[in-house]
Amino acid sequence: MKSLTGYFFLFAGMLVATIGLECFLLPNKFIDGGVTGISMLLAQLSNLPLGIFLVVVNAPFLYMAYRSVGGRFALRSVIAITGFAICVATIPLPEVTNDKLLAAVFGGIFVGAGTGLTIRGGGVLDGTEILALILSKKTFATLGEVILFLNVAIFSIAAIMLGVEPALYSVLTYLAATRTISYLLHGIEAYNSVLIVSKHHEKIRQAILNELGRGVTAFHAIGGYSEQAQCVLFCVVTRLELSRLENIVDTVDESAFVVVQPVHETSGGVVKRRDYQQ
Predict the structure, then answer these.
(1) What is the enclosing helix (H) or strand (E) of 208?
(2) How far, in Å, CA of 118 to CA of 80, rounded?
(3) Of 186, 209, 242, at which residue does a domain stop?
(4) Among candidates 110, 120, 118, 136, which has minimal Cα distance to 186?
(5) What pairs with residue 260 in β-bridges?
(6) Which terminal residue of the chain has fewer beta carbons within 10 Å of its beta carbon, N or C?
(7) What's the distance, CA 182 to chain centroid?
(8) Which of helix, strand or coil describes residue 125?
Protein backbone atom coordinates (compact mmCIF):
# COMPACT_ATOMS: atom_id res chain seq x y z
CA MET A 1 0.00 0.00 0.00
CA LYS A 2 2.82 2.40 0.87
CA SER A 3 4.47 1.66 -2.48
CA LEU A 4 1.23 2.38 -4.34
CA THR A 5 0.86 5.67 -2.49
CA GLY A 6 4.38 6.61 -3.54
CA TYR A 7 3.62 5.97 -7.22
CA PHE A 8 0.39 7.95 -6.90
CA PHE A 9 2.41 10.93 -5.69
CA LEU A 10 4.84 10.46 -8.59
CA PHE A 11 2.12 10.53 -11.24
CA ALA A 12 0.25 13.37 -9.54
CA GLY A 13 3.50 15.34 -9.44
CA MET A 14 4.09 14.84 -13.18
CA LEU A 15 0.62 16.11 -14.08
CA VAL A 16 0.64 19.11 -11.74
CA ALA A 17 4.09 20.22 -12.91
CA THR A 18 2.96 19.84 -16.53
CA ILE A 19 0.08 22.22 -15.85
CA GLY A 20 2.54 24.75 -14.45
CA LEU A 21 4.73 24.61 -17.55
CA GLU A 22 2.08 24.35 -20.26
CA CYS A 23 -0.50 26.77 -18.86
CA PHE A 24 1.73 29.46 -17.35
CA LEU A 25 5.49 29.37 -17.95
CA LEU A 26 6.03 28.23 -21.55
CA PRO A 27 3.48 30.58 -23.17
CA ASN A 28 5.16 33.53 -21.40
CA LYS A 29 8.71 32.29 -22.06
CA PHE A 30 9.63 32.07 -18.37
CA ILE A 31 11.91 29.41 -16.94
CA ASP A 32 12.17 27.63 -13.62
CA GLY A 33 15.34 27.05 -11.64
CA GLY A 34 17.55 23.98 -11.66
CA VAL A 35 17.85 21.40 -14.39
CA THR A 36 14.27 22.06 -15.49
CA GLY A 37 15.24 25.70 -16.04
CA ILE A 38 18.29 24.68 -18.06
CA SER A 39 16.10 22.41 -20.20
CA MET A 40 13.57 25.17 -20.77
CA LEU A 41 16.33 27.61 -21.69
CA LEU A 42 17.86 25.17 -24.18
CA ALA A 43 14.43 24.44 -25.70
CA GLN A 44 13.77 28.15 -26.24
CA LEU A 45 17.17 28.75 -27.81
CA SER A 46 17.11 25.66 -30.06
CA ASN A 47 13.38 25.38 -30.88
CA LEU A 48 13.57 21.66 -30.09
CA PRO A 49 10.93 19.91 -27.95
CA LEU A 50 11.31 20.52 -24.23
CA GLY A 51 10.67 16.86 -23.41
CA ILE A 52 13.93 15.84 -25.09
CA PHE A 53 15.99 18.17 -22.95
CA LEU A 54 14.18 17.15 -19.76
CA VAL A 55 15.37 13.58 -20.28
CA VAL A 56 18.82 14.28 -21.76
CA VAL A 57 19.94 16.97 -19.29
CA ASN A 58 18.69 14.97 -16.29
CA ALA A 59 20.32 11.72 -17.44
CA PRO A 60 23.77 12.34 -15.87
CA PHE A 61 22.18 13.32 -12.56
CA LEU A 62 20.06 10.17 -12.55
CA TYR A 63 23.23 8.13 -12.97
CA MET A 64 24.73 10.03 -10.04
CA ALA A 65 21.63 9.22 -8.01
CA TYR A 66 21.97 5.53 -8.82
CA ARG A 67 25.63 5.50 -7.74
CA SER A 68 25.33 7.74 -4.68
CA VAL A 69 21.79 7.47 -3.31
CA GLY A 70 20.42 4.09 -4.35
CA GLY A 71 18.65 2.13 -7.05
CA ARG A 72 15.10 2.57 -5.72
CA PHE A 73 15.40 6.35 -5.58
CA ALA A 74 17.00 6.44 -9.02
CA LEU A 75 14.27 4.22 -10.51
CA ARG A 76 11.47 6.40 -9.16
CA SER A 77 13.26 9.51 -10.38
CA VAL A 78 13.61 7.97 -13.86
CA ILE A 79 9.88 7.20 -13.89
CA ALA A 80 9.02 10.71 -12.70
CA ILE A 81 11.28 12.59 -15.11
CA THR A 82 10.43 10.41 -18.12
CA GLY A 83 6.73 10.65 -17.35
CA PHE A 84 7.04 14.41 -16.91
CA ALA A 85 8.73 14.72 -20.30
CA ILE A 86 6.05 12.57 -21.97
CA CYS A 87 3.27 14.64 -20.38
CA VAL A 88 4.84 17.89 -21.57
CA ALA A 89 5.24 16.49 -25.08
CA THR A 90 1.83 14.85 -25.49
CA ILE A 91 -0.74 16.65 -23.34
CA PRO A 92 -2.00 19.87 -24.98
CA LEU A 93 -3.06 22.43 -22.38
CA PRO A 94 -4.34 25.97 -22.99
CA GLU A 95 -2.66 29.16 -21.83
CA VAL A 96 -4.45 30.32 -18.69
CA THR A 97 -3.23 33.92 -18.54
CA ASN A 98 -0.89 36.28 -20.34
CA ASP A 99 -0.47 38.46 -17.27
CA LYS A 100 3.24 38.11 -16.52
CA LEU A 101 2.95 38.42 -12.75
CA LEU A 102 0.15 35.86 -12.50
CA ALA A 103 1.95 33.51 -14.87
CA ALA A 104 5.20 33.71 -12.87
CA VAL A 105 3.56 33.18 -9.48
CA PHE A 106 1.04 30.48 -10.39
CA GLY A 107 3.46 28.75 -12.72
CA GLY A 108 5.86 28.51 -9.80
CA ILE A 109 3.14 27.25 -7.48
CA PHE A 110 2.11 24.45 -9.86
CA VAL A 111 5.67 23.42 -10.67
CA GLY A 112 6.58 23.53 -6.97
CA ALA A 113 3.52 21.48 -6.08
CA GLY A 114 4.45 18.91 -8.71
CA THR A 115 8.03 18.75 -7.46
CA GLY A 116 6.91 18.43 -3.84
CA LEU A 117 4.48 15.62 -4.64
CA THR A 118 7.21 13.79 -6.53
CA ILE A 119 9.60 14.09 -3.60
CA ARG A 120 6.92 12.70 -1.30
CA GLY A 121 6.65 9.81 -3.75
CA GLY A 122 10.32 9.00 -3.32
CA GLY A 123 11.78 10.58 -6.48
CA VAL A 124 12.65 13.94 -8.04
CA LEU A 125 11.60 15.88 -11.13
CA ASP A 126 14.84 17.84 -11.22
CA GLY A 127 18.42 16.62 -10.97
CA THR A 128 19.67 19.78 -9.24
CA GLU A 129 18.99 18.39 -5.78
CA ILE A 130 21.01 15.28 -6.63
CA LEU A 131 24.01 17.31 -7.78
CA ALA A 132 23.74 19.64 -4.79
CA LEU A 133 23.64 16.68 -2.39
CA ILE A 134 26.78 15.17 -3.90
CA LEU A 135 28.67 18.48 -4.00
CA SER A 136 27.71 19.33 -0.42
CA LYS A 137 29.26 16.03 0.72
CA LYS A 138 32.52 16.76 -1.08
CA THR A 139 32.87 20.47 -0.30
CA PHE A 140 32.41 22.79 2.65
CA ALA A 141 29.25 24.28 1.12
CA THR A 142 25.83 23.37 2.47
CA LEU A 143 23.07 21.87 0.35
CA GLY A 144 21.20 25.18 0.27
CA GLU A 145 24.31 27.12 -0.73
CA VAL A 146 25.03 24.78 -3.65
CA ILE A 147 21.45 25.04 -4.95
CA LEU A 148 21.55 28.83 -4.58
CA PHE A 149 24.84 29.07 -6.48
CA LEU A 150 23.55 26.87 -9.32
CA ASN A 151 20.37 28.88 -9.69
CA VAL A 152 22.18 32.22 -9.61
CA ALA A 153 24.27 30.95 -12.53
CA ILE A 154 21.19 29.73 -14.41
CA PHE A 155 19.25 32.98 -13.99
CA SER A 156 22.30 35.04 -14.90
CA ILE A 157 22.58 33.14 -18.18
CA ALA A 158 18.83 33.56 -18.70
CA ALA A 159 19.20 37.33 -18.26
CA ILE A 160 21.82 37.38 -21.02
CA MET A 161 19.96 35.05 -23.39
CA LEU A 162 16.32 36.02 -22.80
CA GLY A 163 16.57 39.51 -21.35
CA VAL A 164 16.54 40.94 -17.84
CA GLU A 165 12.75 41.14 -17.44
CA PRO A 166 11.98 37.48 -18.27
CA ALA A 167 14.87 36.46 -16.01
CA LEU A 168 13.45 38.48 -13.12
CA TYR A 169 10.01 36.95 -13.60
CA SER A 170 11.71 33.55 -13.70
CA VAL A 171 13.31 34.28 -10.32
CA LEU A 172 9.82 35.03 -8.99
CA THR A 173 8.67 31.70 -10.41
CA TYR A 174 11.51 29.91 -8.65
CA LEU A 175 10.73 31.58 -5.32
CA ALA A 176 7.05 30.63 -5.58
CA ALA A 177 8.01 27.06 -6.45
CA THR A 178 10.44 26.85 -3.51
CA ARG A 179 7.86 28.02 -1.00
CA THR A 180 5.28 25.59 -2.37
CA ILE A 181 7.72 22.67 -2.14
CA SER A 182 8.52 23.58 1.46
CA TYR A 183 4.84 23.75 2.36
CA LEU A 184 4.06 20.39 0.75
CA LEU A 185 6.99 18.63 2.40
CA HIS A 186 6.57 20.11 5.87
CA GLY A 187 3.02 21.42 5.70
CA ILE A 188 0.85 23.17 8.19
CA GLU A 189 1.78 20.46 10.68
CA ALA A 190 5.45 21.38 10.58
CA TYR A 191 7.01 20.12 13.78
CA ASN A 192 9.10 21.99 16.33
CA SER A 193 11.24 20.48 19.04
CA VAL A 194 11.10 22.32 22.35
CA LEU A 195 13.56 22.20 25.25
CA ILE A 196 12.28 23.54 28.58
CA VAL A 197 14.46 24.23 31.63
CA SER A 198 12.50 25.11 34.77
CA LYS A 199 12.47 24.49 38.50
CA HIS A 200 8.80 23.63 38.10
CA HIS A 201 9.44 20.99 35.47
CA GLU A 202 7.05 18.45 37.00
CA LYS A 203 4.07 20.83 36.84
CA ILE A 204 4.96 21.74 33.25
CA ARG A 205 5.32 18.09 32.30
CA GLN A 206 1.92 17.22 33.72
CA ALA A 207 0.31 20.23 32.03
CA ILE A 208 1.73 19.24 28.63
CA LEU A 209 0.55 15.66 29.07
CA ASN A 210 -2.94 16.55 30.27
CA GLU A 211 -3.74 19.78 28.42
CA LEU A 212 -1.80 19.40 25.16
CA GLY A 213 -1.85 15.63 24.82
CA ARG A 214 1.78 15.41 23.75
CA GLY A 215 4.57 13.12 24.90
CA VAL A 216 7.35 14.57 27.04
CA THR A 217 10.83 13.23 27.70
CA ALA A 218 12.71 14.33 30.82
CA PHE A 219 16.52 14.58 30.81
CA HIS A 220 18.67 14.84 33.90
CA ALA A 221 21.23 17.59 33.41
CA ILE A 222 23.81 19.69 35.25
CA GLY A 223 23.69 23.46 35.05
CA GLY A 224 26.83 24.78 33.38
CA TYR A 225 26.94 27.89 35.57
CA SER A 226 25.22 26.76 38.77
CA GLU A 227 26.60 23.19 38.62
CA GLN A 228 23.33 22.06 40.14
CA ALA A 229 21.31 19.06 39.03
CA GLN A 230 18.18 19.97 37.13
CA CYS A 231 15.60 18.46 34.81
CA VAL A 232 15.23 19.38 31.14
CA LEU A 233 11.98 18.61 29.32
CA PHE A 234 11.89 17.75 25.62
CA CYS A 235 8.80 17.49 23.44
CA VAL A 236 7.78 17.80 19.79
CA VAL A 237 4.73 19.85 18.80
CA THR A 238 3.23 21.17 15.58
CA ARG A 239 3.57 24.80 14.57
CA LEU A 240 -0.07 25.38 15.48
CA GLU A 241 0.44 23.94 18.97
CA LEU A 242 3.58 25.92 19.71
CA SER A 243 1.87 29.05 21.05
CA ARG A 244 -0.35 26.91 23.27
CA LEU A 245 2.69 25.14 24.69
CA GLU A 246 4.40 28.47 25.36
CA ASN A 247 1.28 29.67 27.21
CA ILE A 248 1.33 26.54 29.35
CA VAL A 249 4.97 27.11 30.27
CA ASP A 250 4.41 30.82 31.00
CA THR A 251 1.45 30.03 33.23
CA VAL A 252 3.52 27.67 35.38
CA ASP A 253 6.88 29.47 35.29
CA GLU A 254 7.42 32.81 33.54
CA SER A 255 11.18 32.55 34.08
CA ALA A 256 11.50 29.14 32.38
CA PHE A 257 14.19 28.85 29.71
CA VAL A 258 12.64 27.64 26.43
CA VAL A 259 14.44 26.74 23.20
CA VAL A 260 12.47 26.07 20.00
CA GLN A 261 13.95 24.45 16.89
CA PRO A 262 12.27 23.35 13.64
CA VAL A 263 12.04 19.62 12.96
CA HIS A 264 11.96 18.52 9.33
CA GLU A 265 10.77 14.97 9.90
CA THR A 266 9.55 12.69 12.68
CA SER A 267 8.85 8.98 12.81
CA GLY A 268 7.88 6.50 15.48
CA GLY A 269 7.32 7.50 19.07
CA VAL A 270 4.07 9.09 20.18
CA VAL A 271 4.18 12.34 18.25
CA LYS A 272 0.65 11.92 16.90
CA ARG A 273 -0.91 9.78 19.61
CA ARG A 274 -2.69 10.82 22.77
CA ASP A 275 -2.99 7.38 24.38
CA TYR A 276 0.56 7.09 25.63
CA GLN A 277 2.58 6.68 28.75
CA GLN A 278 6.09 8.10 28.81
Answers:
(1) none
(2) 7
(3) 186
(4) 120
(5) 194
(6) N
(7) 4
(8) coil
Query: pLDDT digit string (tens) for 99-155?
Result: 999 999 999 999 999 988 998 888 888 888 777 767 766 766 665 666 778 888 888
- CATH for 255: 3.30.70.120
Structural domain boundaries, residue 143: 2-186
Which helix H or strand E contains 49, and what residues bound it? none
Q: pLDDT per residue over 8-64, tens digit each?
A: 999 999 999 999 999 999 998 898 888 898 999 899 888 889 999 999 999 998 888
Instruction: Tell me the pLDDT tens digit for each residue of 215-272.
Output: 888 988 888 777 788 899 999 887 767 878 888 899 999 889 999 988 766 666 655 5
- Phi/psi of residue 181, each to 5°? -60, -45
Please report how many Cα atoms fall inside a 13 Å half-sphere around the Cα of residue 105, on the Cβ side. 5
The distance in angstroms from the start CA to the end CA of the chain is 31
Q: pTM value?
A: 0.73
